[in-house]
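Weekly sync notes, structure subgroup
Attendees: PM, AL, DS (notes)

Item 1: joint prediction request from the bench team. They want all two components modeled as one assembly rather than separately. Inputs as received:
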Amino acid sequence: MAEIAANARNDPEAAAATRRYFWNRFLVYAVLTLFAVIYLAPLLVVVFNSLREQSDIARNGLISLPRSFRLDAWAQAWGTYCVSGTCEGMKRNFFNSLWMTIPATLISTLLGAMNGYVLSKWRFKGSEILFNLMLLGVFMPGQISLMPWAFLLGKLGLTNSTYGLVLIHVVQGVSFTTLFCRNFYVSIPDDLIKAARIDGAGFWRIFRKIILPLSPPILIVTVIWQFTGIWNEYLFGVVFTSGQQQPITAALVALTAGGTTARAYDVMSAAVLIGALPPLLIYLFGGKYFVRGLTQGAIK
Amino acid sequence: MSTHDLTVPVAAPSAPWRQRLGTMVPILVLAPSLAASFVYVFVFTLWTLYLSLSSSSLMPTYGFVGLDNYASLWANRRWNIAYTNLFLFSGFYIVGSMAIGLLLAILIDQRVRGEAVWRTIFLYPLAVSFIVTGTVWSWLYNPVDGIQAFVRGLGWTDFSFALTANRNTAIYAVIITGIWQSSGFAMALFLAGLRSVDPDLIKAAQIDGATVSRTYRKVILPTIAPIFLAVAVIQIQFAIKTFDLVAALTRGGPGVSTTFPAIYVYDLMFQRGQIGEGAAAAMMMLAALAVVLVPYSLWIVWRRRAEGRNG
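Output from the run, pasted for the record:
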């Protein structure tokens, strides 16, 4: 034993290999840390600024450790800060976003699950072509649909309302949700469905008793994907709503655009975090599913 | 006992109505989404196409003017800036985020400790909106309060970093922020690809005495080449649709220096009341997407067929 160790110590090649190994490890972690700092810095800056005094920010700039710890800015951003005349903070816009995102997510996911079920287990002549046509919706740029939507929402009396945005997001989202669910259901063995049908189960019974119980993995992916996508959407929000009806993304842009006078970075930082928090929390708690949706949505 | 095949049979004319209705259920379930998608994809596109050929200004009108709107769009200096920016942005953005994404994926692939933590850190920007990212970075770029002030405060008093204050450099601020937001996305896709490479292939290369970097260059990266293409196509798509990021970061300025096609469409339609020309610009965005996506999907179909034949 001792002889081998001595050999290793005396063997310059082995020693060099060990040294190289440690240098490699060091380099790997050093580069990763460098990038982690770059990625986390903006988040930390905003969190710190939401806790700092405005006078401190004005004196020492945005990038500095907090000298105080107070939640005033959060309270103001949530409930009392004034944007163009109304002093209600972000809370109304936050709830607008919530009442837009939750129904749109649920409806589009439900439709996607049923469509995916039909397109994978009840195929009929031409269903593949119809599926591909629906997929085109995934790639449409929103700008193409702006004028037609403006006209339709006007006819339906849904201009400047959360319902209008729900409608838009359901129609736009259904191609995504159908794609996700269909690709998942394809992997459920057809024999399972066949056996159920021989036992006399019909369309809805098979959906409820076989498909839905197998669905949670894909439904979680779909819900997370839709929720973050709709919550973060800006174009339709800013075009079709104004003032008190705006979702939080549009309200944030309005809030931070305010003038050239001394900017209330503390309140704006808190407001930005309020807008970012729901998708961030979903990401932190459902990260695995978030990534799965990302890679599936991307590769297919 | 029925012996239905999985494909729904066409109901015989003599079948009782209940049974005929039964076979219709799947189609009825699909119908509303199908109709909505059809309207959304085809009717809306044709509608906008028609508007782009009309004399619409403040309100949609349907007087036909042929290609006039397209002609005046392409003669417009601001549109010129918009698509030049699009090319510039796409190039740097795609190469930049793929390079960083690949680097991070390879580093994480070296059996590092706390892999989940690193991944979470690099991917979180993707969960928040471009509005949030753009807003925060616009503060960081602000020369009076942001990074420049910070570095000067550290003692380097003539340090200069004011990308967004200058017409010629503002586009690079957009590029940097775009890369920051989405290199984690490239990383996630590359990492999934690296993990899918057959371990025997890597072992064989190592037994042949290939170094780590050689194994990556000659064995691993070529096998995940399709992922490079997928990432590039998705990011070109992002680039063509870029709106939120610019709206929050520079609002198209200073001046019109960071105008993008999507920003210009919005301006024409809703700020200047030139709906016809705005529709023409929107159609150009669609054309740009088609130029990228049609060949790509054809290639995907071709490759699947080829794999089907060989496998």
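Discussion: The radius of gyration of chain B is 26 Å.
Action: AL to compare against the crosslinking data before next sync.
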